[in-house]
Every structure is written in C-alpha cells, then in structure tokens.
C-alpha cells in the first residue's frame, strides 16, 4: 500500500501531492503548502518499491498527468497543477 504522509493544516478539501524526494520543485511545493498552512497529503513516489511505484504511476499519476512529471498536485479531485506554479497554487487555495 502507498505510504502517504499527511501534513496538518487548514482544510481546503482534498489536496494530494505526488512528488519525488530528490526533486527541488517538489520540495518547494511542499514548503509553499506549509507556508500557506493548508492540510495536504504527499507521496514521494521514488521511495516506493518498484512494483508499487509502477502501479502508482500507471493508475494514479497518469490519470492527472500522462507525462508523469513531478510535482503533480491534485486539488479536490477536480483538477491538477503540474510543476511548481506558486501563483496558481496560491490562487486556488484562496491565498
């Protein structure tokens, strides 16, 4: 099963971040979400075992981002922001 980590904060609906542990843009996205004080969950896909990583990329990430690039931020299961898009993330989360 996936190893999601949950960060507490203000409830802005379901916010899920697919990330890589070594990706600077993923780290910046996490810091932005922390600064905004919103609750979110994240999954460092590169830390999963090979089979689980393939499953997550095929079944979850590809649903939102067929290129499988990171960070992939899914907001309220309604839409996705690809890459580190600070202004777009702030706008969507009401900041």
Main beta sheet strand tally, sense and closure: 5 strands, mixed
Rg over C-alpha atoms, rounded to the nearest angstrom:
12 Å
Our estimate of the beta-strand percent is 15-25%
- Put simply, the count of helices is 3
Provide the residue-averaged pLDDT: 94
What is the general shape?
Answer: globular
Briefly say what this structure is.
The protein is α+β, with helices and mostly antiparallel strands and 95 residues long. The chain contains three helices and five strands, in the order E-E-H-E-H-E-E-H. It has a five-stranded mixed sheet with strand order 1-3-2-4-5, covered by helices on one side.
What is the secondary structure topology, with strand pairs?
Elements: E1 5-7, E2 15-19, H1 24-36, E3 40-44, H2 50-64, E4 72-75, E5 79-82, H3 86-92
Parallel strand pairs: 2-3
Antiparallel strand pairs: 1-3, 2-4, 4-5
